[in-house]
Design brief:
There is one protein chain. The protein is mostly helical. The protein folds into 2 domains: about 10-155, DNA polymerase, domain 1; about 175-210. It has helices spanning about 10-20, 55-65, 70-80, 95-100, 110-125, 130-135, 140-150, 155-170, 175-185, 195-210, and strands at about 25-30, 45-50, 55. It is elongated and about 60 Å long.
């Protein structure tokens, strides 16, 4: 589906959390965008076509040391150069987990809780640069988190209704020519030279993983 004036990741997240998951569906998101890892749960999984890897909750934690529920906080701190989000200056995953170990625990921590914890750390260790950076960049971090988090929809009511209409339409199909056109528009035609074989390969792998659930 195509939604004018809406980000694709927001649309996908809305479908996942507000339409499919409430129906007790197993949902598979196919994307190389790391932001989708924050949606991973016992019902939601992410297939990365570049890494050829299917992410379950344990896979996210084993690779990043952060549970999916805390992923948006970590991403707000580190940023994403591909999306033009710089993050807090100098903060990368290793430093983040070292200075804020609670973020790496198997317990959900909100951005507000994280920022409150940082104040306590800063008072105890005022010379540590990482704590100062967060304190000085609080407003930007809040903005980055708002942009990158996918738990709360950023879609307006009209777009939400259009998404529901699209999902309820039993005649949603895409012709071979239509799929080729989308690949060209997204600049992926050179990367996927044989769309039919690519779709067959991806579908086969997803069906295999689905059967394992």
């Amino acid at each position: 589906m195509t939604m004018d004036g809406a980000e694709a990741d927001d649309v996908i997240a809305y479908i996942t959390t507000n339409i499919l998951t409430p129906k007790d569906s197993h949902t598979f998101i196919m994307s190389s965008d790391k932001d989708f890892l924050q949606l991973v749960s016992n019902k939601v999984h992410v297939w990365s076509p570049t890494k050829k890897k299917l992410y379950y909750e344990d896979d996210v934690y084993n690779e990043y040391g952060v549970i999916p529920q805390n992923f948006s906080v970590y991403r707000a701190l580190e940023g994403d150069a591909s999306d033009g989000i710089p993050g807090a200056p100098g903060l990368k995953l290793k430093t983040i987990l070292k200075r804020w170990p609670k973020l790496g625990e198997q317990t959900t921590i909100s951005l507000e809780e994280f920022l409150y914890t940082n104040i306590d750390y800063l008072e105890k260790s005022p010379k540590i640069k990482a704590y100062k950076v967060v304190e000085q960049d609080v407003q930007n971090i809040k903005l980055y988190h708002r942009i990158m988090q996918l738990d709360e929809t950023l879609l307006n009511a009209t777009t939400q209704l259009r998404v529901h209409d699209n999902m309820d339409d039993p005649g949603r199909t895409l012709s071979k020519m239509g799929f080729h056109k989308l690949l060209i528009e997204d600049g992926m035609s050179s990367a996927i030279r044989n769309p039919e074989m690519w779709l067959k390969d991806v579908t086969t792998k997803l069906n295999h993983f689905t059967n394992l659930l």
